[in-house]
Amino acid sequence: MKIDGHTHTELCPHGSGEPTEKMIQRAIQLGFTEYHLTEHAPLPDEFIAHYAGDPDNVATASLRWDQIDQYLALGRKLQKQFQAQIKVTVGFEIDYLADYEDTIKDFLAQVGPLTENNIISIHYLKAANGGYYGIDYSPNELHDGFSDDIQDGQRLYQRYFQTVLTSVAVDYGQFSPAKIGHMSLIKKYQDYFHLPATFSVPTMKLVKQILKVANEKKMKLDFNTAGLYKPYCNDLYPGQQILQQAQQQGVALEFGSDAHSIAEVGHGYHLFEYQSQN
User: What is the pTM assigned to this prediction?
Assistant: First the structure.
């Protein structure tokens, strides 16, 4: 099987707006046999109302609550349209937010019977002041929330990975997400802030704990190539240190282009092939 396990659609407010149909056609041209739609799940209204970062971030981050049915209908239409050529699955990329676990559980209970291949991801971290800030929207916002942590780099990494660990340890119920999204997203602006290229021993201890829980829960790790094409990242998510540890601990990898446009579908898949063969 050749799977693109992390993709977005024409409904994504920060995407290209290009037709999802054409993205799937591109996947077929590239020889993919499965294509997973994983659109950003709506953020809790209370979270948006109290958000400490740039309001444009949360305004363009995800589907609105009134778009859930529209997204699911789009997915079903595309599944039927391409059923003879490629397997299309419909799921969500869900943001873990520490203070909103009940909302996440309620959402999964609602959409779980209608979806497959849901992903749990971290795009927002709680800062020392108690407010949430985005980690991948802009360098300015990351700095606004975590300027002290950035000075130490490893402290920023540890704040992030501690949150990832919490996110995978939660019992979400019957429809628990089966994959960790772009596990090293905290490195998106590593070149901008001159963050450490490698994780320290204490940071890797958290990584190992995350992978242990993932293994116990039979969760996959998103082999996400989007970071390669970000101007201040220039690396895979999750990068070689985590990939090597995942292999040692027996955590399964699944390719994800994180495509938001036609051109991004399948981007960098050859690196996943190489990783799988070595």
Answer: 0.95
